[in-house]
Specification:
Largest sheet: 8 strands, mixed
Shape: globular
Structural class: alpha+beta
Radius of gyration: 29 Å
Helix content: 40-55%
Strand content: 15-25%
Protein name: Protein-disulfide reductase DsbD family protein
Main location: membrane
Domain Thioredoxin: 554-681
Distance between the termini: 50 Å
InterPro entries: Cyt_c_assmbl_TM_dom, DsbD_gamma, DsbDN, Thioredoxin-like_sf, Thioredoxin_domain
Membrane topology: Multi-pass membrane protein
Number of strands: 23
Number of domains: 4
Length: 681
C-alpha cells in the first residue's frame, strides 16, 4: 500500500510532464517475441516481452521495492492455450530520495511459458494478443505505459530458428535458478536474518536478497552478508510487525546471476569469526584473493600438459645453453611471461565481453568452434615437425639466429603460443578461480586471468631470475638434439587428438579438411626446411601459399549439427537434463553427474582411468546409481548455465547426489576408481 501511494504521489507531482508523455511514444519499448513460431501439439512454447528502456528510464521487478508497480498482462488467445506467470530476470537496486527501487535500467526480457494443447492439427493458427501495462520512471517522473502486442503461432514440429534459441538462452540465463533446498529466517525485534544453503564452492561476489514477500524488510536498509561453510547469512532491518509463515525471494549472486528460494522460520546458528568477517564491503576482495591464488596454482599445473611441457622444456634448455648475461636471461623470461599473460588476458576479455552481451560462454569457449581446433592442429603439427627436425623455428628451439638477435621477441611469441595451446582444460585449482572470474567485477576478473598466465609462466620466469636454477640444468650436448626429437612425440600425439576432436565436431569431412590443412602447411614447412639447409635467402617465402590455402580451408570448415556430433550415451549413462535430474532425485536414486568435453584432456583421463572402470560400474550397479553426462564439446547453453550456477566456467566438473536427498557433493577434478566406488549412497 505504501509503495503504491508513493508511486501515485510521484505521478501527481509530475502530472504536467506525465500528461504530456501519455499518448506519445513509450519510454520503454516492448516487443512480444516467440522462441518458436511453430510449436508442436502438447508442448510448452516460450514467449518473451523484450523491453528496451530509453536512456535514464527504468522498469520494475515483480516486487518494485519502496515505489513503483509490477508489470501486468491480459491475454487474448484461442481456447486451450494456458499462459504461465511472468518470469522476471535478476533486478538491479536503485535508491532515489532515500527510497529503494528494484528496477531494470537496461534492456531486459520477461519470459512466459505457454502450454499448447494436444491434438491440434499441423498448420492450426494460434493468434495471441497481450495487453501489457507497466510503469516507466526516470529520476524525476513516472509514467504509466501500455501497449497491445500481437504474435501468431502456427502449430508445427517445434522447430526454432537457432538465432532465436540463442537469444532466448541469453534471456533464460538472466533468470534466477530455483534453489533445491529451502532456507530459514528469523525475526528478532527489528533484525531480520535469512540463512541460505549455498555450497561453499558457489561464488557470491555481489550477494543481495530481493524479497518477493511484501512488508518483510526495510528495503532501503543496508544488507550485511556473511559466508560460513555451506551457508550464506544475510542480515538487515525487519519491517515493523513482520511475522510471515513462509517467505519467497531471489538471492543475487553476481551481476546477472542468482537463485530463487523459499524460507521458513527456524533457528539460525551464529556465524563463525572467519565467516563474520566477510561483510558486504570485503567479500569481493576475499573472493578475488582466493580465486587469484587458485588461478596461479592452476596455471602452474598447466605446464605438465603434453602440448605445453615440450615447449617449456626446449625454451628452458635454450636459455641454459645460450650463455646469455643475467640481464638478457631476465629480459627473455619477462618477454615469455608477457606473451603468456597477454593471451590469457585477451581470452579473458573476450569471454567477459561475450557474457556481458548475454552469451552463456565459459572457459575454453574458443575450442567449441572447430575452426579454432583446426588452427591449433596446424600449429601443433608445425611444432611437432619442428622438434622432429623437418625445419628450424628458432623462437621455440633456441636456434642460433634468434639466440643472438631478437631473443625477446621470440620468447614473447613462444609464451603466447604456450598459453594458447594450454587452454583446453580447467585443471585442479582452476575451476573455482575461473568460476569466480565470471561473477566478479571486470577488473578483478582480469586480474584472475592474469594470475592464470603468471602461474603458467612461473617456471620459465624463475629460470630467468634465479641463476642457481639454470645451473642445475644439464650441460648442453648432443643429448639435447635427441631430447628434442623425443619431445616431438607428445606434440604429434596432441595433433592426433586434435584431429579426432575435429572429427567429433565436424564429422568425417571436417576431419579430412583439418588433416588436409595440416598436410599442406607441413608441406610448406618442409620446403622452408630444404631452403634453410641450402642456406638460401628468404627461406620462409614458400610458407605464404601454404598459409593462404590453410586459411581458406579454415574459413570453410563448420561445426556439424549437434545431432550428428553428440555421441550415443554409454550403457547406464544418461544425457544431462535438469528435469530428468530432478525426477531421479525425487525417486531417491543416487546420481553421479559430470560434465566433459572431447577437447578436455583431464576429462578424458578421468573417464578412462576412473569413471568407466569395471569396479566402478559394479559398485554403481549395486547401489542403483544413475550416471548423467553433460557433453560440452560444442557448447550447450543449458550446461553453461548449470556450471555458472555452481560457480564454474569450464570442465571437468563432478557432482555426487546421494540417494537420501542430501545436498550434492562436489568431487575433486582428479578421480580414482576407489574414490567413486566408495561414494556413500
Amino acid at each position: 500500500m505504501i509503495r503504491t501511494f508513493l508511486a501515485l504521489l510521484a505521478l501527481l507531482v509530475a502530472a504536467p510532464v506525465a500528461a504530456e508523455a501519455l499518448g506519445t511514444t513509450n519510454h520503454i519499448t516492448p516487443n512480444l517475441v516467440a522462441e518458436s513460431a511453430a510449436p508442436a501439439p502438447g508442448s510448452k512454447a516460450t514467449l518473451a516481452f523484450a523491453m528496451r528502456p530509453a536512456a535514464t528510464w527504468h522498469g520494475y521487478w515483480k516486487n518494485p521495492g519502496d515505489a513503483g508497480l509490477e508489470t501486468r498482462v491480459e491475454w487474448t488467445a484461442p481456447k486451450g492455450l494456458a499462459f504461465g506467470a511472468i518470469q522476471y530476470p535478476i533486478p538491479q537496486t536503485l535508491i532515489i530520495a532515500g527510497l529503494m527501487n528494484y528496477v531494470y535500467e537496461r534492456d531486459y526480457a520477461m519470459l512466459v511459458t505457454v502450454d499448447v494443447p494436444k491434438g491440434l492439427a499441423p498448420g492450426t493458427k494460434l493468434p495471441i494478443s497481450a495487453k501489457l501495462d507497466w510503469l516507466a520512471c526516470n529520476p524525476s517522473v513516472c509514467v504509466p505505459e501500455t501497449a497491445v502486442l500481437e504474435t501468431e503461432l502456427i502449430v508445427g514440429d517445434g522447430h526454432a530458428d537457432p538465432a532465436k534459441v540463442a537469444q532466448f538462452d541469453r534471456w533464460r540465463a538472466a533468470l534466477p535458478r530455483p534453489l533445491a533446498s529451502p532456507g530459514h529466517f528469523a525475526i528478532t525485534g527489528k533484525v531480520f536474518r535469512i540463512e541460505v544453503p549455498l555450497p561453499a564452492t558457489a561464488q557470491a561476489a555481489q550477494p543481495y536478497f530481493f524479497p518477493l514477500t511484501d512488508k518483510l524488510i526495510d528495503y532501503a536498509a543496508p544488507q550485511k552478508v556473511a559466508r560460513d561453510g555451506d551457508r550464506l547469512v544475510i542480515e538487515t532491518v525487519a519491517h515493523e510487525g513482520a511475522a510471515p509463515a513462509k517467505i519467497e525471494g531471489v538471492l543475487r549472486l553476481g551481476a546477472d546471476s542468482g537463485v530463487s528460494l523459499e524460507a521458513t522460520p527456524g533457528t539460525i546458528a551464529a556465524v563463525s569469526a572467519a565467516g563474520a568477517s566477510e561483510r558486504s564491503g570485503d567479500t569481493g576482495l576475499v573472493a578475488t584473493l582466493i580465486a587469484l591464488g587458485g588461478a596461479v596454482l592452476g596455471g602452474l599445473l598447466l605446464n605438465i600438459m603434453p602440448c605445453v611441457f615440450p615447449i617449456l622444456s626446449l625454451k628452458a634448455l635454450s636459455l641454459a645453453r645460450s650463455g646469455k648475461s643475467e640481464a638478457d636471461a631476465r629480459g627473455e623470461a619477462l618477454a615469455y611471461t608477457a606473451g603468456v599473460i597477454a593471451i590469457c588476458l585477451a581470452l579473458g576479455a573476450v569471454l567477459l565481453g561475450l557474457r556481458a552481451a548475454g552469451q552463456t560462454a565459459g572457459w575454453a569457449f574458443q575450442l567449441q568452434d572447430v575452426r579454432v581446433i583446426l588452427i591449433l592442429l596446424v600449429l601443433v603439427s608445425a611444432i611437432a615437425f619442428n622438434l622432429a627436425g623437418l625445419f628450424e623455428l628458432p623462437a621455440i628451439t633456441g636456434g642460433d639466429a634468434l639466440a643472438s638477435k631478437g631473443g625477446k621477441a621470440g620468447a614473447f611469441w613462444t609464451g603466447a603460443l604456450a598459453a594458447f595451446v594450454a587452454t583446453p582444460c580447467s585443471g585442479p585449482f582452476m575451476g573455482v578461480a575461473l568460476g569466480a572470474a565470471l561473477v566478479l567485477p571486470a577488473a578483478a576478473a582480469l586480474a584472475i586471468f592474469a594470475g592464470l598466465g603468471l602461474g603458467l609462466a612461473l617456471p620459465f620466469l624463475l629460470l630467468g631470475f634465479v641463476p642457481a636454477l639454470r645451473k642445475k640444468l644439464p650441460k648442453p650436448g648432443a643429448w639435447m638434439d635427441r631430447l628434442r626429437r623425443i619431445l616431438s612425440v607428445p606434440m604429434f600425439l596432441t595433433a592426433l587428438g586434435l584431429a579426432w576432436i575435429a572429427g567429433r565436431q565436424a564429422g568425417v569431412n571436417g576431419m579430412t579438411l583439418a588433416l588436409t590443412a595440416a598436410f599442406i602447411f607441413t608441406l610448406g614447412l618442409w620446403w622452408v626446411g630444404r631452403r634453410q639447409q641450402a642456406m638460401k635467402p628468404a627461406a620462409w617465402w614458400p610458407l605464404i601459399p601454404a598459409l593462404l590455402v590453410t586459411a581458406l580451408i579454415v574459413a570453410t570448415v563448420r561445426n556439424a549439427p549437434a545431432a550428428a556430433t553428440v555421441a550415443t550415451a554409454e550403457p547406464g549413462h544418461e544425457r544431462f537434463d535438469e528435469v530428468r535430474l530432478a525426477a531421479l532425485r525425487a525417486e531417491g536414486r543416487p546420481v553421479l553427474l559430470y560434465f566433459t568435453a572431447d577437447w578436455c584432456l583431464t576429462c578424458k583421463v578421468n573417464e578412462k582411468a576412473a569413471i568407466e572402470r569395471d569396479e566402478v560400474a559394479d559398485a554403481f550397479a549395486a547401489k542403483k546409481v544413475v550416471t548423467m553426462v553433460g557433453d560440452w564439446t560444442n557448447g550447450d547453453p543449458a550446461i553453461s548455465r548449470f556450471l555458472a550456477a555452481h560457480g564454474r566456467s569450464g570442465v571437468p566438473f563432478y557432482l555426487w547426489y546421494p540417494a537420501a536427498g542430501a545436498e550434492p557433493k562436489e568431487l575433486p577434478q582428479v578421480l580414482t576408481p576407489g574414490m567413486l566406488a566408495a561414494l556413500p549412497a
